[in-house]
Amino acid sequence: MNTAETLAVLSAALCVAGGLWSLCTTDEALRRARLMFADCGRPPVGPPGWARWQSYAGQARAVLERGRKQAAHRLGVPVGPEVLCLPAGLLLGLLTHSPLPPLAGAVAMPLLGRQLRAQHRRSENERWQESVITLCTAVAGDLRAGRPPDAALADAVERMREARGFGDPQAGECMSRLLAAARFGGDVPAALRQAARRPGAYGLAAAAACWEVATVGGAGLADGLDRVAAALRAERDQLEELRAALAGPRSTAAMLALLPVFGLVLGWTMGAQPLRVLLHTPSGQVCLAVGVVLEGLGLLWTSSIARAAEKG
Asked: Which parts of the chain span the membrane according to its record (predicted)?
């Protein structure tokens, strides 16, 4: 076993450890437990020197994040964490003397970027839904306190803008129109429906309907907004319960996807030189291609099942 293959296997082991750590931190039950016991005041549990290694990892992440932001600023285009696939592939290619790792890094970069962007959109939509729930609850509370509807809506929208910031220009423009309609006697239902076009803010369309019914028919606006907030809150809780139920199958699928890496490490410990066989022999390259295709199909299948369960 030469030095290049040894370093490559060690790099693979580190990737496995990082994947397992990321897998464990995404578990829903573990996340809730950490949030619940975050302020217990107990010292961190871990082996000696664990805090130092955490500090080193934090510094490395800060350096990578700073380099990514500088690259995005110089290129004038958004650069995400997926660009790290290229240097990782080049490093593994230099260590293994094979062009396959750089090619795999180039192929993985757009796929990972697409996955990260989809995850960011889902998170943004969920934050919007939470903001709509807060908005409806705040307006209903102010109405019961005797405030006029327009003033209550204007204050709630202003607090919503301060809390979220609205980095998206279109979202900021919608909120500005809604705020102007509430403060200066504009068409509030139309502004609410326009803001509801933003993904995740569909609850504002129901709020617009409640506003029109309360204005024309004299119905209680506070009760209608409370019902809208309760319906959105029930939908959010149902989605969280479903994701908690799917956390186990997703963890199992990710663990099964990492088994080939464990097989490489096991073969290296037995002196079989699996990297040389997979990267530098025709039969190994065929086995590697078939394994990658089957691995990708398995991951796509499990992710499609999970998405279908969430949408259903």
From this structure: 253-271, 283-302
Predicted TM-score (pTM) above 0.90: no
**Can you tell me the distance from the alpha carbon of 64 to that of 30, in angstroms, rounded to the nearest whole number?**
27
**pLDDT at position 221 over 80:** yes
Q: How far is CA 311 from CA 137, 238, 240, 296, in A?
A: 26, 11, 13, 22
Task: Convert the pLDDT of each residue in 263-284 to its tens digit.
Answer: 888 888 888 888 888 888 898 8
Phi first, then psi: give them for residue 145, nearest 5 degrees: -80, -5
Q: Rounded to whole angstroms, what are the CA distances from 112 to 43, 127, 235? A: 36, 23, 29
Cα 8 to its chain centre, rounded Å, is: 29
| Contact assessment for residue 225 and residue 208, using Cβ atoms and an 8 Å cutoff | no
pLDDT tens digits, residue range 123-137? 888 888 888 999 999
Q: Is residue 267 a contact partner of residue 274, using CB atoms and an 8 Å limit?
A: yes
Please give the share of the chain, as a percent, with pLDDT higher than 70.
73
Name the residue with higher pLDDT: 43 or 151.
151
